[in-house]
């Protein structure tokens, strides 16, 4: 897009003073921040590109719009000379790739993490020469052809899968679909993490196939596993448990509600020359049953899905985290380790620690937090956008007093 064409883009005018948060670095424009008398949202179609301007006509940035969403616009560029086009996408992808190459010697990582890589609404995971792309917004959906061509130029993948089936798309008024963009997309791919290889499903797996965000925390785990009896709850493909076994754990049991995930976990264990025990079932029910059987473990890992996806879920979700940590903690022996996580943005780290502390008090155990972890650095945090910091993981020693 030329400068002249960019200047012809329609304006989206902000109300008085509503440019302050954007000037501080945030990329989202909420619908109540827009001067709808001057620039009515109804004049725009989902995905339209606009010039965001202040109430004094100062250029704020180029953005795409969705009048159906509470987040009515997302900034793509603050440079008046760099309007949104394929060349901008290429520059953004090159910047994202440069970081990941500094972080990893192998091409297995989250290549793009939305707003933190200045590509709001776009997530890309890399599995060698196969990419899985998740588009969450109408603006990025409109740019999908340019995204694909930019990926061909910057990464040169052999195949790309569109994994566009997240609930965020429903909020944006977008259809859900999973389909190859080009190339032969395999049913399963290999992931390399911390020196181990795992098989993971693509189209049929959870999210984009693998949870790269916990890679650093799984590395931290390794110093605690020697000789331990390990329970891995919400285990998915067994990444925590298999890493523990390869680094000296005595035994490991995986708990998950998915038969196929547990079966693949067993195959991953065999491929890494270790053996897992597996239990299929609802995590809360299984933990209660293990307690009734008087089972004990030295190390319990709780890595659940998000119990709180929206603000209205907070009370119910907080109760779920409290119950889960109590159930997990009561399975620990006299001196055990609880590794517990939350990927719910709406649950703060302090609230998760409070749930852990409450469980310890109820069981009359002393709890000491040894380490705190967040998402791996290929999921960078945008300091002006707290929503990009979502993962909390705590390593806690739990001792019977």
Keywords for this entry:
single chain, 401 residues, alpha/beta, Archaeosine Trna-guanine Transglycosylase, Chain: A, domain 4, Transcription Regulator spoIIAA, Rossmann fold, 3 domains, 7-stranded mixed β-sheet, 5-stranded mixed β-sheet, 12 helices, 29% helix, globular
Major pleated sheet: 7 strands, mixed
Strand content range: 25-35%
- For the record, the CATH architecture of the largest domain stands as 3-Layer(aba) Sandwich
Q: State mean pLDDT (0 to 100 scale).
A: 95
CATH superfamily of the largest domain: Vaccinia Virus protein VP39
Could you say which structural class the secondary elements and strand pairing correspond to? alpha/beta
- Do you know the CATH topology of the largest domain? Rossmann fold
Please give the alpha-carbon distance between the first and last residues. Answer: 67 Å
Tally the beta strands.
Answer: 19
Describe this structure in words.
The chain is an alpha/beta fold. It has three domains: 3-77, Archaeosine Trna-guanine Transglycosylase, Chain: A, domain 4; 86-186, RNA methyltransferase domain (HRMD) like (Transcription Regulator spoIIAA), CATH 3.30.750.80; 190-400, Rossmann fold (3-Layer(aba) Sandwich), CATH 3.40.50. The protein has helices spanning 3-7, 20-23, 86-103, 138-142, 144-154, 167-171, 215-221, 239-246, 259-271, 283-292, 314-329, 349-362; strands at 11-13, 28-30, 49-53, 59-65, 71-77, 108-113, 122-127, 130-135, 159-164, 177-182, 188-193, 196-201, 229-233, 251-256, 277-280, 297-302, 332-342, 365-373, 392-400. It has a seven-stranded mixed β-sheet, sandwiched between helices. Strands 1-3-4-5-2 form a five-stranded mixed β-sheet. Strands 6-7-8-9-10 form a five-stranded mixed β-sheet. The longest helix is centred in the first third of the chain and has 18 residues, at 86-103.
């Amino acid at each position: 897009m030329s400068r002249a064409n960019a200047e012809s883009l329609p304006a989206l005018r902000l109300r008085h003073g509503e440019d302050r948060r954007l000037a501080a670095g945030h990329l989202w424009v909420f619908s109540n921040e827009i001067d709808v008398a001057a620039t009515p949202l109804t004049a725009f179609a989902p995905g339209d590109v606009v010039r965001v301007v202040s109430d004094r006509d100062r250029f704020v940035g180029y953005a795409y719009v969705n009048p159906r969403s509470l987040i009515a616009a997302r900034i793509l560029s603050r440079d008046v000379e760099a309007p949104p086009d394929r060349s901008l996408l290429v520059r953004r992808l090159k910047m994202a790739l440069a970081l990941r190459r500094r972080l990893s010697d192998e091409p297995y990582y989250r290549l793009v993490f939305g707003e933190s890589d200045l590509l709001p609404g776009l997530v890309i995971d890399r599995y060698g020469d196969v990419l899985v792309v998740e588009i969450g917004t109408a603006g990025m959906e409109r740019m999908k052809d340019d995204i694909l061509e930019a990926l061909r130029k910057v990464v040169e993948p052999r195949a790309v899968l569109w994994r566009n089936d997240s609930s965020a798309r429903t909020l944006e008024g977008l259809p859900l679909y999973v389909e190859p963009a080009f190339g032969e997309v395999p049913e399963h791919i290999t992931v390399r993490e911390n020196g181990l290889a795992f098989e993971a499903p693509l189209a049929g797996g959870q999210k984009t196939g693998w949870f790269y965000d916990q890679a650093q925390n799984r590395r931290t785990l390794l110093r605690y596993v020697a000789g331990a009896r390990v329970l891995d709850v919400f285990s998915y493909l067994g990444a925590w448990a298999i890493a523990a076994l390869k680094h000296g754990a005595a035994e490991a049991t995986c708990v998950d509600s998915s038969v196929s995930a547990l079966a693949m976990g067993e195959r991953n264990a065999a491929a890494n020359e270790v053996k897992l025990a597996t239990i299929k079932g609802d995590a809360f029910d299984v933990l209660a049953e293990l307690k009734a059987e008087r089972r004990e473990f030295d190390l319990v890992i709780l890595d659940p899905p998000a119990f709180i996806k929206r603000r209205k879920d907070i009370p119910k979700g907080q109760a779920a985290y409290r119950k889960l940590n109590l159930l997990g903690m009561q399975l620990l022996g006299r001196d055990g380790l609880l590794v517990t996580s939350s990927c719910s943005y709406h649950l703060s780290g302090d609230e998760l620690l409070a749930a852990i502390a409450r469980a310890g008090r109820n069981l009359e155990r002393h709890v000491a937090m040894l380490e705190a972890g967040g998402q791996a650095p290929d999921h960078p945090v945008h300091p002006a956008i707290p929503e990009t910091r979502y993962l909390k993981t705590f390593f806690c020693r739990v001792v019977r007093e």
